[in-house]
Amino acid sequence: MKIVICEDDARQRKFLQSTIVHSSLFQYDDVEIALIASNPSEVFTYLKEHRANCFLLDIELQHEINGLELANTIRSKDPLASIIFITTYADKLKLTFTYKIAALDFIVKNEPNLAENLIDTLHIAYQKHQNIQTEQIDKTFQVKIGEHVQIIPFTDIYCFATSLNAHKIEMKEKNGVYEFFSNLTDIEQQLDERFFRCHRGYIINLQHIRKIDQTYRTITMTNGSICHYSFRYKKALIKALPSTSTIIFE
Q1: Which DSSP category does 208 fall into?
Q2: pTM, 2 dp
Q3: Are residues 34 and 124 in the same domain?
Q4: Which tens digits make up the pLDDT trace of 135-149?
Q5: Is 150 helix (H, G, I), strand (E, B) or coil?
Q6: End position of a domain, from candidates 134, 165, 184
Q7: Residue 158 belongs to what domain range?
Q8: 4-aspartylphosphate modification sites (predicted)?
Q9: CB under 8 Å, gap of 24 or more: what pairs does 14-22 form?
Q10: What CATH number did the domain enclosing 154 receive?
């Protein structure tokens, strides 16, 4: 779990870092503090190239962008991220309802059990992270469209195909079609056994095949999409088909 801290008070930043590093959380190899920032600009720069799973955000940042606005941007980019607000004034917490931000927890700086509450909340965030890893991430595909991230269940995806637009991929799923910058080789590494690279220009979901035309080497998906398969992939494709499939062969 990658943790990002955004706190403009140097003493608080040091306290948060020390508390986390010396907690039992660091017995896990996959826990790290990825960024300690004093303002939102540093967080935005980090998120251009990286991802994080948990954000500790001070609400009262001395910046043109406050912690709530920062959280709003984070949430739009990653709906699954855990957001923990830290504030000096408990009455500021009601503002989260105005911004409609679903936070994992709220921690007040001057409460007596601050360190203990912080670690307890981070343990909850870690458990959430583990659940996502085992139950969702390996069963969903994330698509970045502009500044937003769409999370698509594998079961909803019909196929991926190279787009007519250079360096872009077209993904067809139950709710529509997405076009985004990527390549099939990278995408293939993110998928599971339900998907098959049947052509240099196509990856198909084996569970959504309706018909295979062996003369024209085309595959009709359950949504009506037509994909092509290469002759060299034919045997592997047939072998990969689900044993319970009711695919029509022509």
Answers
A1: G
A2: 0.55
A3: yes
A4: 544 578 888 777 677
A5: strand
A6: 134
A7: 140-249
A8: 58
A9: 15/115, 16/56, 16/86, 16/118, 19/115, 19/118, 19/119, 20/118, 20/119, 20/122
A10: 2.40.50.1020
